[in-house]
Amino acid sequence: MFGFHKPKMYRSIEGCCICRAKSSSSRFTDSKRYEKDFQSCFGLHETRSGDICNACVLLVKRWKKLPAGSKKNWNHVSLSFSLSQLYLCYI
C-alpha cells in the first residue's frame, strides 16, 4: 500500500553543498541528481556533493531553461561559501 520513502529533511548538519544554508523552510535533498550541472550553473571549479537546499535546486532548474549559448550563472551563490572557507584557512 505505502512504499518506503525518505523523510523530508528541513535541517542539514553539513549544510547545503552550494550555499551552506543549514536550515530551510523547504526541504533538503541529495545532490547526486544535480551534480553534473554544478560547474556550469554555479561556476564551480571543484566538485561538491551532499545535501542541497530547495533554493539551489530551483536555481539549477532555472539555469537548465536558459537559452542555448547563455553565459548566465549563479556563481555568487557558491562564491560566498568559497571565500569564507579560504579566509578560515588563513586564520
UniProtKB/TrEMBL annotation:
Family annotation (PANTHER family): SIN3-HDAC COMPLEX-ASSOCIATED FACTOR (PTHR13422)
On the tree of life, the source organism's domain of life is Eukaryota
Q: Which InterPro entries match?
A: FAM60A
**Which cellular component terms (GO) are annotated to the entry?**
Sin3-type complex
Tell me what organism the protein belongs to.
Cervus elaphus hippelaphus
Q: What is this protein called?
A: FAM60A
**What processes in GO biological process is this protein linked to?**
negative regulation of cell migration
